[in-house]
Predict the structure.
Amino acid sequence: MPITETEKIWMDGRLVPWGEAKIHVLTHGLHYGSGVFEGVRAYETDRGPAIFRLEDHINRLFNSAKIFMMDIPFTREEIVEASKAVVRENKLKSCYMRPIVYLGYGEMGLNPLLCSVSVAIAAWPWGAYLGDDGMQNGIRLKVSSWQRHDPNALPPAAKGTGMYLNSSMAKIEALKAGYDEAILMSPQGYVSECTGENLFVIKKGEILTPPTSAGALEGITQSSVTRIASDLGYKVSTENLLRSDLYTADEIFLCGTAAEVVPVSSVDDRVAGDGKPGPITKAIQATYFDAIRGRAESYKDWITYVS
Ligand code: PPE
C-alpha cells in the first residue's frame, strides 16, 4: 500500500521534515533486520484525534526491545508523548503510525550489544489494509506452504523487523496464487496467524483464537476483540486449532491494527459458513469500529486524545 507523505517524522528526540528522515546504508538494522516496531492507529473522534491503545502498543514495543536486548534510550512516557506530538504536529485527523526502534550506524557484525539504538515515529493516512471490498464482503485465505517460525527460532511475542521476511514469503505465495492473504501453521501443525493479523474461528457460537505458543503475536486487536466478544456475551477461548478447524468453521475473521476486523469468506476454497460475513463477525466488527472512534462509553479507556 502506498505511503502518503506527511510533514514531519519524529527521529531520536526531534521532529524532522519528512524528506530528511534518512539513515545510512550501513545501518545495522538494514543488514540484519535488527529492529522492533509497532503499528498503531489514530482515529477521528468528537473530541479530536485519538490514538487507540497507545500505551499497550508502547509497552509491547518495550517488551520486544527487551527480548532482543535493545536498550531504548527514551522512557515509555517520552515515546507516548512523541507519538501524540506526531499526530498533532502533522495535523492528522486519523492515521496509521509506525514507531520503530532499530540498531544504528557504527558497528557491523552479529554482536548487536555494541550498537547504538535509534527510535523513529512516522504517521500517515492509511485506508483499509486489506481493501474496502474485503472489509465489507470478506477475503479469501490460503494456508501457506511456509511455516510460522518456531518459538525457539524467533520469539513470536516480539515484533521484530527481520521476522517479517517469513510473513512476506507467505504473502507473496498467497497473492501469486490468487488469494488475498495467507495463514501460517506452526511447526507443530497448529494454526498460528496470518501474515500481519491474528485469526479468530467461530464454531457453534464459541469463539476461538490460537495462542502465542502456536507462533501468534500477542495481538492488541486480538485482546480488544476478546473483550468486546465477551461483553457481547460470547465465550472466547485461546486454543490450539487444526487446519481442519478452518475448513469446518461457521465464521472466520482476522484482526490487526492495520487490517482492523476483516471477515473471511473462504480458506483453501472451503467456504466459511455461507461465504458472507457472519452475524457474530459483523457484531464484533461494528462494536470495534465504535470503540476505536471513541463512540462506545465502555471502551473509552482504550483511547488517548492527542490534545
Ligand atoms: N500478527 C502479526 C504477525 C502482525 O504483524 C500483527 C500486526 C498482528 C498479528 C496483529 O497485532 P495488533 O496490531 O497488535 O492487533 N501487524 C502490524 C503490521 C502490519 C504491516 O506491517 O503491514 C499492524 O497491523 O500494524
Summary: The chain is about 25% helix and 30% strand. The mean pLDDT is 97. The pocket of PPE is lined by residues 39, 167, 193, 196-198, 217, 219-222, 256-259 (CB under 6 Å).
